[in-house]
Every structure is written in structure tokens, then in C-alpha cells.
């Protein structure tokens, strides 16, 4: 009975973190899938969201900026707005760059964010991070508190999914795809490419910040290590590519699938002999890479590839375009 | 309608266009010809906003448009096509056309969430217009095909179709006949003259196919070494000894 309950809790935590990653993957899907922007600095915006929401909700403390004790919805909104403003500033500088240079620039910017968060001790408590972050529904009895948090995450994922599906099928989504497919032709069709790319970038970064906010409240703690590029950037990219870039269902599927794999590798590697277990970090990354390779061999455009109209889905398969298409 | 005044374009030490001045009269189909390296494409790219001239003016309906970005020129009524078709490969043929029209409220992200009826109403109009364009180009049967899967000639038609999705006044065609088989070439020629007649578009085209030029264009502007050599009717230009010397190679037709 105890073991069953343990598995039950494990599944809830798996789904909760999977859902948070689904928000990240949907954010990246706007940028890469819809618009063709190579954002390699997901971790930066994720971190901004996590810290803003954590600082706004914690009780007064001398260790870091805080004591505002704001309600959660205000904190979540603030996290998204701050990230949106920062994304706008970054976009002003970086969005003119070609996709590969954009990737390099965003990696750099994410690292700058992380170093600031790590070193501005007065605001963030430096490497020790912000602890005692309140968790929504914490007053509910076990396991209802976990279930309520999971429900909040899943409802958010569903709401974002519906909003993005509307956006994807709208004239806005059509222009975004046109820019991704052929920028000069989109310009020649009167589209202000810079404006649309900025919208995609800012919107995507705001969702990443929301995922960050949820993470800090879920873990009740946020420190510089939680925003490691490996788990906050690389893993999200793997999720989107495996699930199917430019397909919102694919982004969600990829997030839950790869989070399960990532989580399972932790169990697996913890059972390794001692001399190997110190190398678990490498083994986990290796296994993720292996899954990525296997999936892309079988599904070059992700498990759920981009779909336009029902009748053209077949034609899309025939062209067999690889997932890592160039954006210009 | 469009007047080019003392246009210069210098790439480092190379002067591609030199003090070039000419005018495209409203209601004409003006041909822009000249040997390779004459500066046709450079001039074209300056007019459509892809290149900013080193000096000189491009006056469209009384306004200097030199250096304005391409997307702004579109809204002023200047539309272009590409020599190598620039289709949106992973979008359907119908979507390729539907993306073009201006004034689509649904291009604002938030409008799609709060005013769906307004978006849907405009979508119906846009779709209708796209269907008509496909009908005109006789490629209606390809409407749901991905544009990337079309043949070269079909993509060329799609280029022309995009110009029909807006109320353009000046349409600039970059080699509409390049890489097209002779039958389709005749079809494209007829379409251009029909659009000229029915919709009142003013055309300007760069072209190497002399038959297409002589059957469509009046007047013809001949560029050589970055400036205007002469202009006039094709049959007159053809006999101009200077032109023959610079371009047609001693009386031989290309």
C-alpha cells in the first residue's frame, strides 16, 4: 500500500514537472516552430520568471529582496511582464541576427542573466538562492495539495494550447510561417518582419517566465543551479524536436515524454554500480542524446510533424524535410 | 508615375549604376533591358527597396521613396515578383496567396482571441480573392498542395498570383519568363497583358527574352554600363546602332 502511494506521488510529480516543461516547450514552439527564431537562452527567461515570482511572494527576510507577500496571480503576471520587457530589449539588439548568430547571442544573454542573479546577493541571496518560496494549495491535506498544484499546471497548459492553436491557424500564424519559410517574400508581401519576429520572441519568452515562476513555487526554492542551461535550455529543445516542431500537440507530447525519460534515467543511473554512479550525470545526457537520435531516425520531423491542411499532410511527408531546417 | 533621378549605386570600387534617370509612365508596360552587368538588377533592387542607393532620388507619385524598406513600398502600391520563385514552401498554394492582402485584422495576435467574428469575416473575403486568383492562373486544382511541391512553372504562376492579391498600382516583374517553357511563356504573357488591361496595373519588367519584350513592352528602356543608353518603342530601339553595338551584337537577335 505504501509503495503504491509512493508511485502515485511519483506520477503526480512527473506530470507536474512534465506540465511545466510543456509550457516551456510551447514557448519555444512559438519562437522556433512558428517563427524560426533560434533561442538558445531559454534558461535566462525561465530564471527571470522564477526569481521575480519568488521574490514577490516570499515573507519578509533579511537574506534577499522580498517581503512583498503578493498574491500568486499578481506574481505570475509580474514574472511574465518583466520577462516580456527584457525580451523586448534583447530582441531589439539580437533579432536582426541570422539564426545561428541569434543562438550564440541568446546563449550569452542567458548566461549574463544567470551571473547577475548569482552575484547580486542583496536581491537574490546569491548562490544560496531564494528559499521558503510559498507553494499554492499548501494548506490542503495530502495528497490534495499535490493534486491541486498539478491541476493548476495542467489547466494552464490546456489554456496556452488553445490560445496557441487559435494563433497558429489565424492570419497572424500564417504570416509567422511565411516569415519562417521565406523572409524576402514576406517583406515583399508588405509584412513588417521585424515586428512579427519581436512579437513571437516576446510572447515565447513570457511563457518561459511563467514556467519558471511555477517551478520556483513547486520546488519552494530557486537558486542559480536550478536554471542550468542543460535542464532549462537543452532539454526543452530536445522535447520540441522529438515531439514535433511547429506542432503544439507535439510540443506537449515531447515535454511529457522526455521528462519521463529524463526522470527515469535518474532511477536507472542510481542503480548503477558505485564506480559508475559518479558518472551518472554523463550517462543521463548520453541517454537523452540516444533517444533523440532514435526518434529522429524514425521520425525526421518529430513524432507529430507540422500539419497544415488535412490534404497536404501526405505531401509534407513526401518532402521529408528534416527537423533542423534553416530559417532563411 | 515613377521617376528615377540621377541614381547612383556604388559597391566599393564598382559603380554599378551611374547617374541613371528615367521615368515609368502610368498605364504602360515598361521593359528594362540591357546586356549582363548593365545595372538592371541593381536598379530594380533599389526601386523595390532591397538596396539603398548611394545617391539620387526615386520619386513615386510625388514622394521620394529611395531607401524605404520593401514592406512599406508594398503599402504604397509597389509590388514585385522574384526571378527565382520565392514561394512559402511549407504552406499550401491557397495560403501562399491568402498571406498577401493588407488590412487583415487577424494579423494582430490579440484580435484573434477577442474578435473572432471580425477575423473570420475578413478571412472569407481574402479566401474568395485567392480562389479567384487561382482560377485566373488556372491552378485551382493545386490549391491545397504545398507550394514547395509545385513545378518551376507553377511556382512562377504563383509569383504572379501574389501581385493579384493587393490593389497594386506598379508591379515590378523580375524576369517573369526565365526558366519557363515556351507554351507557359505565352500564357504568362497573356496574363500580364490581361492584368494590364483589366486591372489597370502599370508594369515594369526586366527580361532577357526579346520576343516577350517586343510583344508586351512599350516603351523599352535600354541600360548599358549603369546608365540609360536609349529608350523608345522596341522596333526603334532594335535598329538603334548604339544598342546593336552594346547589346544585340551586330544585328543578331538573342
Summarize the structure.
The complex is a heterodimer of chains A (328) and B (254). With 328 residues, chain A is an all-alpha fold.
For the biggest sheet of chain A, the summary is: none
Q: How far apart, in Å, are the first and last alpha carbons of chain A? A: 57 Å
Count of DSSP strands of chain A? 0
Q: Return residue spans of chain B where pLDDT drops below 50 for at least 5 consecutive residues.
A: 250-254
CATH class of the largest domain in chain B: Alpha Beta
Name the CATH superfamily classification of the largest domain in chain B.
P-loop containing nucleotide triphosphate hydrolases
Instruction: State the distance separating the first and last CA atoms of chain B.
Output: 31 Å
Helix coverage percent of residues of chain B? 25-40%
Shape of chain B: globular
How many distinct beta strands of chain B?
Answer: 10
Please specify the SSE layout and strand pairing.
The complex is a heterodimer of chains A (328) and B (254).
Chain A: H1 2-34, H2 42-57, H3 72-94, H4 99-119, H5 121-124, H6 144-169, H7 171-181, H8 183-188, H9 193-219, H10 229-243, H11 248-270, H12 274-277, H13 280-298, H14 313-319
Helix pairs in contact in A: 1-6, 1-9, 1-10, 1-11, 2-3, 2-4, 2-9, 2-10, 3-9, 7-9, 10-11, 10-13, 11-13
Chain B: E1 2-11, E2 14-24, E3 29-33, H1 40-47, E4 55-60, E5 63-64, H2 70-76, E6 78-80, H3 93-98, H4 109-114, H5 116-136, H6 152-163, E7 170-174, H7 182-199, E8 202-206, H8 210-216, E9 220-224, E10 227-232, H9 234-239, H10 241-248
Parallel strand pairs in B: 3-8, 3-9, 6-7, 7-8
Antiparallel strand pairs in B: 1-2, 1-4, 4-5, 9-10
Amino acid at each position: 500500500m505504501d509503495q503504491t502511494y509512493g508511485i502515485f506521488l511519483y506520477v503526480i510529480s512527473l506530470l507536474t514537472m512534465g506540465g511545466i516543461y510543456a509550457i516551456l516547450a510551447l514557448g519555444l514552439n512559438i519562437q522556433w516552430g512558428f517563427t524560426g527564431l533560434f533561442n538558445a537562452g531559454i534558461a535566462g527567461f525561465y530564471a527571470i520568471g522564477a526569481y521575480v515570482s519568488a521574490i514577490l511572494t516570499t515573507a519578509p527576510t533579511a537574506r534577499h529582496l522580498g517581503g512583498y507577500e503578493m498574491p500568486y496571480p499578481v506574481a505570475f503576471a509580474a514574472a511574465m511582464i518583466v520577462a516580456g520587457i527584457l525580451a523586448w530589449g534583447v530582441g531589439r539588439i539580437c533579432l536582426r541576427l541570422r539564426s545561428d548568430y541569434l543562438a550564440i547571442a541568446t546563449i550569452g544573454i542567458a548566461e549574463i542573466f544567470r551571473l547577475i542573479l548569482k552575484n547580486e546577493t542583496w536581491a537574490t541571496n546569491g548562490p544560496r538562492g531564494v528559499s521558503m518560496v510559498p507553494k499554492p494549495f499548501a494548506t490542503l491535506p495530502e495528497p490534495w495539495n499535490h493534486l491541486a498544484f498539478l491541476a493548476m499546471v495542467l489547466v494552464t497548459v490546456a489554456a496556452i494550447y488553445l490560445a496557441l492553436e487559435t494563433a497558429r491557424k489565424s492570419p497572424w500564424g500564417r504570416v509567422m510561417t511565411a516569415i519562417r519559410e521565406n523572409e524576402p517574400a514576406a517583406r515583399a508581401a508588405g509584412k513588417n518582419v521585424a515586428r512579427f519576429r519581436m512579437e513571437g520572441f516576446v510572447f515565447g519568452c513570457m511563457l518561459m517566465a511563467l514556467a519558471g515562476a511555477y517551478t520556483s513555487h513547486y520546488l519552494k526554492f530557486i537558486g542559480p543551479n536550478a536554471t542550468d542551461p542543460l535542464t532549462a535550455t537543452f532539454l526543452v529543445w530536445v522535447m520540441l524536436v522529438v515531439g514535433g516542431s511547429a506542432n503544439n500537440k507535439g510540443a506537449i507530447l515531447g515535454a511529457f515524454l522526455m521528462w519521463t525519460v529524463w526522470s527515469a534515467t535518474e532511477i536507472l543511473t542510481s542503480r548503477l554500480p558505485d564506480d559508475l554512479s559518479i558518472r551518472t550525470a554523463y550517462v543521463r545526457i548520453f541517454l537523452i542524446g540516444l533517444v533523440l537520435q532514435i526518434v529522429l531516425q524514425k521520425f525526421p520531423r518529430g513524432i507529430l510533424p507540422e500539419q497544415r491542411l488535412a490534404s497536404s499532410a501526405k505531401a509534407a511527408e513526401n518532402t521529408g524535410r528534416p527537423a533542423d531546417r534553416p530559417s532563411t | 508615375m515613377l521617376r528615377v533621378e540621377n541614381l547612383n549605386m556604388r559597391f566599393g570600387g564598382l559603380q554599378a549604376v551611374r547617374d541613371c534617370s528615367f521615368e515609368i509612365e502610368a498605364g504602360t508596360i515598361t521593359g528594362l533591358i540591357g546586356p549582363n552587368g548593365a545595372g538592371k538588377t541593381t536598379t530594380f533592387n533599389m526601386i523595390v527597396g532591397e538596396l539603398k542607393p548611394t545617391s539620387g532620388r526615386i520619386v513615386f507619385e510625388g514622394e521620394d521613396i529611395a531607401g524605404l524598406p520593401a514592406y512599406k513600398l508594398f503599402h504604397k502600391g509597389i509590388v514585385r515578383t522574384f526571378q527565382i520563385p520565392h514561394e512559402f514552401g511549407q504552406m499550401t498554394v491557397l495560403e501562399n496567396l491568402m498571406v498577401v492582402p493588407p488590412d487583415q485584422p487577424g494579423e494582430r495576435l490579440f484580435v484573434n482571441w477577442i474578435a473572432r467574428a471580425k477575423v473570420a469575416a475578413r478571412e472569407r473575403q481574402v479566401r474568395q480573392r485567392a480562389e479567384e486568383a487561382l482560377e485566373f492562373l488556372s491552378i485551382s486544382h493545386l490549391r491545397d498542395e504545398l507550394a514547395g511541391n509545385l513545378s518551376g512553372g507553377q511556382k512562377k504562376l504563383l509569383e504572379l498570383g501574389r501581385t493579384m492579391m493587393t490593389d497594386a498600382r506598379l508591379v515590378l516583374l523580375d524576369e517573369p519568363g526565365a526558366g519557363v517553357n515556351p507554351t507557359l511563356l505565352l500564357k504568362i504573357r497573356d496574363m500580364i497583358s490581361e492584368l494590364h488591361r483589366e486591372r489597370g496595373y502599370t508594369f515594369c519588367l526586366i527580361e532577357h527574352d526579346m520576343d516577350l519584350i517586343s510583344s508586351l513592352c512599350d516603351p523599352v528602356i535600354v541600360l548599358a554600363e549603369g546608365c540609360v543608353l536609349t529608350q523608345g518603342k522596341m522596333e526603334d530601339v532594335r535598329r538603334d546602332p548604339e544598342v546593336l553595338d552594346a547589346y544585340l551584337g551586330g544585328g543578331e537577335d538573342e
